[in-house]
User: Which sequence fits this backbone?
């Protein structure tokens, strides 16, 4: 029971329990999916290309593409 006279004294234990449940859920998800999947598709961004009307173009890393001005 809250004896400090504050109406929000129940919040801290509730937040702690909520955080503990969230962390337990995240740990379970990470453990469940932290293995290589048999049918995974691997994509290498170093050789990534995309089709254009002028033929295939190589994708550039973020920051290397020329800047466009927005209208």
Assistant:
């Amino acid at each position: 029971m809250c004896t400090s006279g504050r109406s929000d004294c129940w919040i801290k234990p509730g937040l702690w329990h909520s955080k503990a449940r969230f962390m337990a859920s995240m740990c379970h998800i990470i453990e469940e999916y932290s293995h290589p999947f048999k049918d995974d598709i691997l994509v290498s961004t170093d050789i990534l290309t995309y089709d254009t009307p002028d033929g295939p173009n190589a994708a550039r890393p973020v920051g290397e593409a020329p800047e466009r001005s927005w209208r």
